[in-house]
Write a structure and sequence with these properties.
This protein is an alpha/beta fold. The chain has 5 helices and 5 strands, in the order βαβαβαβαβα. It binds manganese (II) ion (MN). The site of manganese (II) ion has 5 residues, from loops.
Length: 129
């Protein structure tokens, strides 16, 4: 199934990383939205209903983990997959990530092919295809 109609919200405060994710995802047929801070996340999700969120954990002011908790405790948004990324070597089965509701975790630097694969997998399983 082509996922060319899929949209990913990129939440990342580093401009270079944002550009890398944007270019990589758009190259693979995704549409992207982006923000550099957690405070914008819920509004963007409610307005655009993307198919997945790429969530940097280390964000200014409010962390990506906290933003993930907001998403996962929202009655209408909680089914949107959240793929967490972090420069810290957090084990993928980390209890804090799981408790926050992250659906997957990738360590930076994130290989784009792997990122695309993980996002596709979660978008497909959410759509039931
Ligand atoms: Mn960051």
């Amino acid at each position: 199934m082509a996922l060319s109609d899929s949209t990913v919200l990129i939440v990342e405060d580093n401009e270079l990383n944002r550009r890398l994710y944007r270019n990589g995802l758009e190259y693979h047929g995704f549409t992207t939205l982006e923000t550099d801070r957690a405070a914008n996340v819920l509004d963007l999700l409610r307005t655009h209903r993307p198919d997945a969120v790429l969530m940097d954990i280390q964000l200014p002011e409010t962390s990506g983990l906290e933003a993930t908790r907001w998403i996962k405790s929202d009655r209408e948004l909680h089914t949107i997959p959240v793929i967490a990324v972090s420069a810290f070597g957090i084990p993928p089965d980390n209890e804090i990530l799981r408790a926050a509701g992250c659906d997957a975790y990738l360590a930076k630097p994130v290989p784009i092919e792997e990122l695309v694969q993980v996002i596709r997998c979660h978008v497909r399983s959410r759509r039931g295809v």
